Amino acid sequence: MGDMGRLYATKLNAGGYRVVVCDKPESFERLAAELEGSGIEVLKDGHAVSRLADFIVYSVEAAAINAVVKQYGPSTKIGATVAGQTSVKAPEKDAFDKYLPADVDVVSVHSLHGPSVTTEGQPLIIIHHRGPQEKVTMVEEIFRSFKSRYVYLSYEEHDEVTANTQAVTHAAFLSMGMAWKNGSNYPWEETKWVSGIEVVKVNITLRIYAAKWHVYAGLAILNPAAQRQIQQYARSTTELMKLMLGGHRDELSRRVWAAREAVFGWAPNEDPVHDEDGGRRPILLSEDILDQFSLGEHDKKRDDQPNSHLSLLAMVDCWAALNIHPFEHLEVAGTPVFMLWIGVAEYLFRSRERLAAAIDAGLADRVFRADDLEFTIAARGWGECVSFGNFDLYERRFLDTASKWQQSVSSVGRVNVPRNATPARRDPGPPVNPHRRRRRTRRLRACARSAFTRPTGDSDRMGAWLARIGTGHVALSARRLPLTTAGFFAPRFEGASKMGTKMIKTIQESQQRSN
């Protein structure tokens, strides 16, 4: 049972439905033992649950959906409604059309958030593919307990929107993680990435690499729109980096300011000011919000080191090149990570002073030059990997980077804790002596070792079911209305999977207070 399958099973069971689940046949006894006493019933395989359920959700990776539906789809109960929880809908649609009986309806779903994020207020896409309108109403009622925001799209619209809100975002953070890994200089080991925008980069990179590789591989490789965007992101990164290395100030400035106007609608000589009586409020009201989260001690008396923010410049340049308007999709079906990342981009591009400083840093400053070079190489590598359509290569690149982060990352909890939640400092007194500094270093190293150490509690035992993603089946059923879901489970790192959640919540609360 996968992360999202378990989330669905738990939420629907709590909502008063009878829930039945299944995994791969060889995992039956273990799954039954894990869920004993939970109120969730475990059946032996997908055939058993398909014959029982009135509403079936296939929660498997996009690359496996065809094989799983081919195996269990013909057993679907007459008159049942089928959905899929895949991140890419084109393969799901083809599988349903090909293998489901004609007397079965299809109303698919997709929760645009991870299992560690609350479902309340998050977008839940509903796709009415075939069957009467009453089945849509039924699905709405089933998910009422989620308190999600329903978004109604077609299969094709879903893949376009998810590509526009996730493809480039994932490519940016995957590239950052690989760049830091290849450069062997992790953010918590230096003072270049202490607060503000830098914290967002590190926070979300950790969150991405703490998840399962197939979540991102399916979207990147199986969604044609996502492929185009990832390729363009690699081109934008490379071309901007060449302009920086060549010292082509006029061309670099022209391109960056043109992208600003194309994506955000602000003229080069315009410093937008929020209008309280109308217009769109900035996502990040101030960098002080981000400064509640830190990777180290931030000396406000010292100016931050200039950074080209190449990852952000390339993202906006990519959107401009593809004529993508991200705020439209943010309102429709933006994910928490996308909301935060576009908020950071908006924060950088909103101020002419900050954007000009980024351009100057890219041309003249050498502090981040090696990091920008590693980032460019990583972005091109991910672009080539996606163009090959090779899941094995994607998995190797992802897991190799993730394993290095697991070995080197400092305590994830320390990254997320607001400063005002830590004990107030007394008078600093005399400088710290070398012995105390060494003890602090040892403590930080201990944090690094413990950050990805599995807890022994029940919450993590679920994550130890499968060492490798398979094509297992999971099912749900209901007291009033039987339900089914299919999926599989891979190990996850409990702490890192929550990266950024507190930061996102803090930003949302700040926006609510300002309204």
TrEMBL record:
Pathway: Amino-acid biosynthesis; L-tyrosine biosynthesis; (4-hydroxyphenyl)pyruvate from prephenate (NADP(+) route): step 1/1. Residues 418-441 are annotated as: Disordered. Its EC number is 1.3.1.13. SUPFAM superfamilies: 6-phosphogluconate dehydrogenase C-terminal domain-like, NAD(P)-binding Rossmann-fold domains. Residues 1-274 form the Prephenate/arogenate dehydrogenase domain. It catalyses: prephenate + NADP(+) = 3-(4-hydroxyphenyl)pyruvate + CO2 + NADPH. It is an enzyme of class 1 (oxidoreductase). It comes from the Eukaryota. One of its GO terms (biological process) is tyrosine biosynthetic process. Keywords: Amino-acid biosynthesis, Aromatic amino acid biosynthesis, NADP, Oxidoreductase, Tyrosine biosynthesis. GO terms for molecular function: NAD+ binding; prephenate dehydrogenase (NAD+) activity; prephenate dehydrogenase (NADP+) activity. Belongs to the prephenate/arogenate dehydrogenase family. This is prephenate dehydrogenase (NADP(+)).
